[in-house]
Amino acid sequence: MDLKSKLIALIQNGSEIEKCMNDLNLHLRETFQECHDYCFKSGQVYEDVLLLKIDSILDYLHDELNTGHWSEVPVTTRQTFTCVSFIKALVIVSSGADESVRNALKCVDLGLLLGAPLSENCGLMTQAAALFSESMSKPSSVRVLSKRKLPSNLGRVHGKEVPVLHCPSIEHFNENHFKPCYPAVLKDCISHWPAVTKWPDVNYLLELAGSRTVPIEIGSHYADENWTQKLMSLREFIYDHYLDSSSLGYLAQHNLFDQIPELREDIRVPDYCALAREEGVDPDVNAWLGPEGTVSPLHFDPKDNLLTQVYGTKEVVLFAPCDSERLYPHEGSLLFNTAQVDPYAPDLDKFPKYRGAGAYKCMLEAGDMLYIPLRWWHHVSALEKSFSVSFWWS
Predict the structure, then answer these.
(1) Residues 202 and 130 in one domain
(2) Which pLDDT tens digit goes with each residue over 78-92?
(3) Is residue 311 part of a domain?
(4) What is the pLDDT of residues 30-50, one digit of tens each?
(5) What domain range includes position 287?
(6) Is 279 exposed, middle or buried (0-12, 13-18, 19+ CB in 10 A)?
(7) Are 361 and 157 in contact (CB under 8 A)?
(8) Which pairs with CB-CB distance under 8 Å and at least 24 residues apart come from 53-56?
């Protein structure tokens, strides 16, 4: 069975894909129908113009996705983007052109990143991505020549040490930290994760996911005026930013584990997440992969967080919600949860109330989890190449 046939065999309900054109105008519906018929009707002849036609639909949908706030984009528009991305992947594979598999995989990844799961074909895109990945040649091995560790600046911050617990019982954690919303470093809780032994070898990540397209933050941190985002393959990121930290890049706050389920098999949801403030809410699981020197500026999240350090070292400075006014949050709707104060070098003339803020601090080593209660401010700095996983739940 050729690759196109294998992709079509993944479809659980073909009518769902065809119905997505209802979200398009009349002209684009006709264009989509032509591309759809090419993929699914026998005897159709490939023409280069098919790629231009399917791209015209994706360009239209891309504009729709970027009009207004992302949270307000209708799920049907995102699902249509998913369907059209899958059709484009079929067209690319049919072309037989050089790099067709790599280009089709990139197309599927964009569908995963910008689209939404379909109702009756919910696993279609992840299965298609796995099929493409399996058919690609494996990369040659790389070696990390040096392991640099930046000096800690935690001594410049006056504050209390975050309590350290060794694999506490759920009952103890609940009574002493979860209920009162008080941070803690939890040790010896992830030694059973396959990720602990697999992920420190960058070749494992390259072989499993090197060709996958991921969003990378470029710049010192997201609150910096020169900060930007760029889509690139994980391989490009590892070579250009992770192994060569002179150009700072960060795979940050990305749901890598839904995009690449094979990586999800290497981790486990901590039992502590069962202590939910809302019933039936699964944690949001995000990846944080980057070189030494990456920074998440002082900010808070609206959910409880278990920041889990698979490898590498990070230092964290925290403040309780009662100190919010003393940290001078940015005004406006975009950065309202980010402070203007840098806890390592506070400008006390500009931010005089900071003098009354009470900091907490800790060093997060490989194998540690940091419990960050909801709405607690935290500033995170990587001293080494690091891979962290955050579990946000409420």
Answers:
(1) no
(2) 999 999 999 999 999
(3) yes
(4) 999 999 999 998 888 888 899
(5) 160-393
(6) exposed
(7) yes
(8) 54/84, 54/87, 54/88, 54/91, 55/88, 56/28, 56/31
Tokens at 14, concatenated: 């073909």
Q: Which residues pair with 254 in a beta bridge?
A: 287
Q: How many domains does the chain have?
A: 2
Q: pLDDT value at position 137?
A: 77
pLDDT bracket for residue 146 (50, 70, 90): low
93: Cβ contacts below 8 Å, ≥ 6 apart: 3, 4, 7, 100, 101, 104
H/E segment holding residue 100: helix 100-114
Answer whether residue 141 is part of any domain: no
Global pTM?
A: 0.93
Give the 3-state secondary structure of residue 266: coil
Long-range contacts of 174-181 (CB under 8 A, 24+ apart): 174/275, 177/371, 177/373, 178/272, 178/275, 178/304, 178/371, 178/373, 181/373, 181/374, 181/376
Distance (Å) of CA 78 to CA 3, 8, 81, 124, 153: 26, 21, 5, 14, 44
> Does 72 fall in a domain?
yes
Task: Please report which residue ranges of 14-99 form alpha helices under DSSP H.
Answer: 14-19, 26-40, 49-65, 75-95
Q: What is the pLDDT of residues 351-384, one digit of tens each?
A: 999 999 999 999 999 999 999 999 999 999 999 9
Residues 277 and 381 in one domain: yes
Is the same domain home to 197 and 101? no
For residue 98, the tally of other CB atoms under 10 A from its CB is: 8
